[in-house]
Amino acid sequence: MVLIAPSILSADFGRLDEEIKLAEEAGVDMIHIDVMDGHFVPNITIGPLVVEAARKATNLPLDVHLMITNPEKYISDFVKAGAQYLTVHVEACVHLHRTVWQIKEQGIKAGVSLNPATSLTTVEEILQDIDLLLIMSVNPGFGGQNFIPFCIDKIKKAKSMILNKFSNALVEVDGGVKLENAREITEAGADILVMGSAFFGEKNYKEFMEKLKKTLSI
Ligand code: DX5
Ligand code: ZN
């Protein structure tokens, strides 16, 4: 069973409420929200206020991906805004274990993300503590980039590391996920597919979800 999480980064922000509602009606499983600070990644996007607006638009879980430095400073702001999953980057956390537990102590799910070139060994010790492992399949910062092929192998390795550690963490894949490669990524071990441009670039989200579910046999 694979979950679909459209990234609102590629949505029309002038109609954000409607865009999220249309995604929900189309049958998506969660809403992915990309928070960028212009330091960790070369782009500035969304803050807690937009997460709060998204919270009002839907009851679906909000999957908030923090691409920011010092994420520990903003955890309670995003929890208050309505995040249900909060994911931090291993490259941005000096004390990753402390940050993960800071998130979990607030009663929500904790995720850890890796840039494409960051080795899985950096999260090996924390796999049993986390709810989600986010494998970036593009260098974070922008929507609409191409999936980096070596990430297929990384997803397979991530899945087997999780199973070996008896962790319940879900494997989420983010960046360049499209109708054409969704099946291969899922077969490699992804439990959650983030889709930005491939989803919001479509005219009819319902039709797209039908095609996607057919491709994934779900
Ligand atoms: C990239 C973001 C992604 C992005 C994905 O930095 O983390 O979530 O929105 O967009 P697509 O699916 O267009 O690659
Ligand atoms: Zn993301």
TrEMBL record:
One of its GO terms (biological process) is pentose catabolic process. One of its GO terms (molecular function) is metal ion binding. It catalyses: D-ribulose 5-phosphate = D-xylulose 5-phosphate. Signal peptide: none annotated. Binds 1 divalent metal cation per subunit. PROSITE patterns: RIBUL_P_3_EPIMER_1, RIBUL_P_3_EPIMER_2. The keyword Amino-acid biosynthesis does not apply. Pathway: Carbohydrate degradation. Its cofactor is Zn(2+); Fe(2+); Mn(2+); Co(2+). GO terms for cellular component: cytoplasm. The active site is at 34 (proton acceptor), 174 (proton donor). Keywords: Carbohydrate metabolism, Cobalt, Isomerase, Manganese, Metal-binding, Zinc. A divalent metal cation binds at residues 32, 34, 65, 174. It is an enzyme of class 5 (isomerase). HAMAP family: RPE. Catalyzes the reversible epimerization of D-ribulose 5-phosphate to D-xylulose 5-phosphate. Belongs to the ribulose-phosphate 3-epimerase family. This is Ribulose-phosphate 3-epimerase. It comes from Thermodesulfovibrio aggregans. The lineage of its organism: Bacteria, Pseudomonadati, Nitrospirota, Thermodesulfovibrionia, Thermodesulfovibrionales.
